[in-house]
Amino acid sequence: MTPQELEAVRARLETFAAEVFSCFARADQRRWGERYVRGLLTDGARKSMEPMAARLGVDRQGLQQFLTDAPWSHQLVLAELAWRMDTAINPAAWVVDDVSFVKDGEESPGVAPQYCGALGKTANCQVAPSVHLVTDVASCPVNWRLFVPEGWDAASPRTEDSAAVAARRQRARIPADITHVPKWQLALDMIDELCCWGLEAPLVVADEGYGQDGAFRLGLTERGIGYVVGVRSDTALLGIDAGRTVAPYAGTGRRPVPRYRDKPRSAQQIVTAAGRRALHAVTWRAGSKGPLRSRFVALRVRPAGLRIRRAHMGEDLPVCWLLAEWPPGESEPTKYWLSTLPADIPLRRLVRLAKIRWRIEHDYRELKTGLGLDHFEGRTWSGWHHHVTLASVAHAFCTLERLDPKVPAAV
Predict the structure, then answer these.
(1) On the chain, which terminus has fewer CB atoms closer than 10 Å, C or N?
(2) Mean pLDDT throughout 155-184?
(3) Domain count, the chain
(4) Which residues touch 168 (CB under 8 Å, ≥6 apart)?
């Protein structure tokens, strides 16, 4: 925002900040919180500490101390934010995704050579899963985790120099109980935390980075949460008609038990076998260049991966939707999803929910290009979590301004 635009909304920003930062025990922390968010909202090429302090006309050391050293809980702030935004947005889904931060050096917490979505290749970066409340018209991140690679876990059996890792963790002030955890587990932890805060998940949407892992899908099912998640084309599946049968008893040894004897097929094989005649043209939303439209097929299947089979040992495998997109002109389907949404759900709604993940790219783009999400230059665990939390507060304020019909469309 320009200084003039920010001045026009300053009263609303101060009211919003007072509500979100009401968990701060001290008045000076509430003031610094509002100032930091104001700094993130103000126009400027860099949203790191020194240029922000200069634009705000405040003491840089005070701002630095509030962000890095002040003992305030980012979870309490995120809880306040989640409660407020859940009411304002009324989400159709919780979307799980992750964002990467390219870094130089080895001292920023969690930095390591790993896949960097921002560059589309392996690079030295941090990776952070997040959970967003989403509808077709609004969205907001309300929970974050910083991924800790195995190289940052002194207790990992793959760590060659545990003393050096422990020293690096101490410099980054990473708490002792923070260890390497797979991203899908971090996602489930965030979902559990949101539920503990009193929110109720309408359903969870994720790309194949999370959906491909059977443990993630099982975790959602165990929690009673429906999902639409991306999967790879080689995901093992059985047809809806597959059933458990018992082999004839030979008269010696253990009696045969019921089991699936059909050979699993890949998602690609099942959709290809259904053929182009099973496709339906679906328009799921209006895009910037006109209606978004493609061809889809939805089939009832049973997931047949090893983890799923083990979890349902002696039971029928669950039935779910296999959704595939097969655009005109393509020789084969291009995207696949599995979903536990009801059997009678209309195809258009199933497609719309699978595609609702587009809002996350909008959030990350706004957070990075406008609100300085990736401008944090500190090297501490708490500092990083404080910064992304305050960036989320700034993003939420922009979202509320856009949703308010009485506010001119300037945010």
Answers:
(1) C
(2) 89
(3) 1
(4) 106, 107, 152
